[in-house]
């Protein structure tokens, strides 16, 4: 059973607000590393798990038949529903910032119908800023409609990026940054992909790229960026995905794409 994007967004906003409140409260009570995942730097806190569990329970109450994909619990208990809705959950994007008390971490929740993200919300756990979008309905922050940067010169562009957790991948990503930085205004590595995409949606950075994003890092923020007018794709017209995500305003897309392709930004481990 599908529903209009606006209806799914309203559910997502309610669930993400409560989830962010839990993450905020648990942060105030003190957090520590509960486990590591792919590498020793890929950490999980008790809050990542508690928040995802809360989101799963809340979604099950209002839309029990929907499928879910979450960062910590994978496909959860509900299987994929053909033609139905799938919720994509990042309980805390920017877990390392969360661990250190840096105010750049977010709950990210998106609704996908037939493999296409139709609604998404990203809520900064520390500041309460909230970005939303529906497919075709524009991108919004706290009631204000967003548009991306109008910069046309890559040399004047502030470009955000991020690094994965695999040491070989990080080394490759650092080499790409070293080669790119002379050709842009500057680089930012702020530590939460969903928020990076939302900042690009309102021109607080001009563009963003990263290799190695998971579906939950990309889903909601990618829709917000797209609806704000950025082109969000992979290399050579491929869809944005784990190989590479480039999110750039139309005028910056080709120059950034050309640089990233020449630097083999989607290559390496
Ligand atoms: C990570 C953050 C980071 C990005 C990584 C992600 P997590 O997500 O978004 O900025 O560079 O690729 O894995 O682990 O904090 O949820």
Summed up, what is this model?
This protein is 36% helix and 25% strand. With 269 residues, it is of the alpha+beta class. It binds D-MYO-inositol-1-phosphate.
Characterization of this structure:
Strand 6 (116-124) and strand 7 form a beta hairpin. It is built from seven helices and 14 strands. Strands 3-4-5-6-7-8-9 form a seven-stranded mixed β-sheet, sandwiched between helices. Strands 11-10-12-14-13 form a five-stranded mixed β-sheet, with helices on both faces. Strands 1-2 form a two-stranded antiparallel ribbon. It is globular. It folds into two domains: 5-138, Fructose-1,6-Bisphosphatase, Chain A, domain 1; 154-262, D-Maltodextrin-Binding Protein, domain 2 (3-Layer(aba) Sandwich). 48% of the residues are buried. Helix content is 36%, strand content 25%. It has 269 residues and is α+β, with helices and mostly antiparallel strands. Bound molecules: D-MYO-inositol-1-phosphate (IPD). D-MYO-inositol-1-phosphate is lined by residues 90, 93-95, 162-164, 191-193, 210, 212-213, 217. The site of D-MYO-inositol-1-phosphate has 14 residues, from strand 4. One of its GO terms (molecular function) is inositol monophosphate 1-phosphatase activity. InterPro entries: IMPase, Inositol_monoP_metal-BS, Inositol_monophosphatase-like. Keywords: Hydrolase, Magnesium, Metal-binding.
